[in-house]
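*** Backbone structure tokens ***
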Amino acid sequence: MFLLNHILNKEKISLLLIAFLMVSFNLKAQEAADTAEHKFNIGGQFRPRVEFRYGTFRPMNKGEKPAAFISDRLRLSFEYSYKNLLTLKVAPQVVSIWGQANMVQGAENSGNKFSVFEAWAILNATPNWSFKIGRQVISLDDERFFGELDWAQGARAHDAISVQFSKKKYELKGFFAYNQNYKALYANNMNNPSGNLYSTSDAFPHKWMQTIWASFPIKDKSKVTLLVNNLGFQQANSAKSDTLDHTTRYTQTFGANFFHNAKGLSANLAAYYQRGQNLTSKNIQAYMFAAYIGYDIKKQWHIGVGSDFVSGNKIGIPIAVNNSFTPYFHTGHKFYGNMDYFYAGNGHKNAGLSDTYLKLNFKSEKGYSFLMVFHQFVAPYKVMSGAKKYAKNLGQEMDLSFNYKINKFVAITGGYSFYLANSTIKYLKDTPTAGIYQQWAWMALNINPTFYKTKNKH
């Protein structure tokens, strides 16, 4: 009841959620008669997480104090479907830091506002074709380019239209988005009579997005996927006149993946190429390669080794072409170390990255698991500062994590990571007085209850 009362007090979404609840109660009364036609599910998630940061995102300079805080995600999920024709989902959430919202909250509820993580409808045109419209998660392949970013308490969703086809093991998906930001340039007036300029201020990083993704099976244990993505970027600082900052520049990314998952053996190969222009009109020629192979030992142990190569620029040397690859919507926390030194948090001067890692995972039948990953990071190209040449070694990171499933709805997770910094990474991160040993520890409680689910009767 606390959760429901907390939700229903929010002006922007209360009417919609009340409508969902009314449908739920109505379905409960009619369940025996028409369950086959109408289905309704209500679920939730509460995920508090405590963190101690002494060098997360970048090395800590001498004299800086570590960060320690507790954050949480509260999310509800309402999903309704009618036959095989329509599915509608709304998932509001609030992300907060303990103590940030006043103990006695005012009318604006400052610091503790609900937002909508997902709000979409799926229309099934045929058994093979469907259309999805609204705020939705786009997660493709292993999330090297499109990912949900679930580690972040707010996660990631797109405002988009998607077209999807599936038949047997063949899949085809198309995603299309056109974004506007009226609050930045047009005084948040939705009735503004003219103007389509875009500002990224507190909004999406792109104005246009078109993506086509396809998956093709190779026998029973393997598949190949292909990706074509086009992004249009615009950063208008004013709506008054046409200037250079009103120009839209486009970047294209082409990708291919190979996945193999046989008994005891898994492998992945990935290659991406990026071209076009960035916001400064500089031409882009960039690429990324990745490879991984893993083997299961006695069902409980998994050992694997992998390597990623992400192109970048020579640092300290003038460039005519931007060779820095940008994995725009990836889940970097999954690949380039849990401390997020690369392609998350703050940048590393577009130096590119070579990451070779060793993974060891243990899963028990009793509901707990442990994961250890060791990373060796290297800069692929020269790193210069005037006449000074830095070593290419960017340091090492060790990530340790665990997961324990307490019951059907509750799990506890946690981890500890340390990074061995050196002069090169400290230069790229602008932290010259930082020490060698950087560390991070965290622990979270993940509660995922199902409040209500339509029962199927046969």
Remarks:
- The chain has one domain: 2-99+112-453.
